[in-house]
Amino acid sequence: MIQQYFTDHEKGREFQLFGKLKRIVEQWYDTQVEIIGGDGSKEMRRLVIFWNQKETAASIYEGIKNATIRHKTQKDTEQNNIKAILNYYNPEGSTRYVYGATSKDVYPTVKSHVNYVVADTSSWEQIAAKTLEELPQVVRYVKNHFLDFKIPYLDGSIEHNYIPDFIAVVKTADDKEANLIIEISGFSNDKTGHKDLKRKYTNDYWLPAANSLNTYGKWDFIEISDIDNIKALLTEKINSL
Question: Where residue 179 falls among pLDDT bands split at 50, 70, 90?
Fold first, then answer.
């Protein structure tokens, strides 16, 4: 639990929480684990082996997070306690390192640091790029191709990575900049069947963790499943930031 969820990117693992976490895990173990067979004694429970360690930790952490939100005031809730664990050797990425060749169709850019948008579909990425170019609220943007921007998530105990379509820096109504992750297809081309998991881990884990850093600005997320109304949907989202 400490390694997976309670590690500060500056101070390291928060071993001062060991006592509290031990009591929470004990409660989970006593109330959520059902023993089939045997006499139900504590000695029998000690023989249980958890193979899915990450899935178990994720389940317990979800309970901690929900309980924390319930017991906090609205003001405190906004200060989310989810912490980001950065890659020690490569804590951030940049469009300056984007380089690659493609046989797919491309769309030339002006506002992007990368000179072309690579199209994964016949028209959606081109429409999205054209819209991002035209919207005055969009300061700059990039197609997430060769950028290696990934959002990790768990399907049970198996780790996966979700790769969003675009990242845009936008000008909000109060004249501040925010980073907007844009999923153009609304996961419609998702071959894994993990749409809800990707959505959940992006909104409930990645965004709060990134925003709690106070280092890389404000982050938000939008799904665009109606490409014909992309301009209106993006405008509404940006104005709400």
Answer: very high
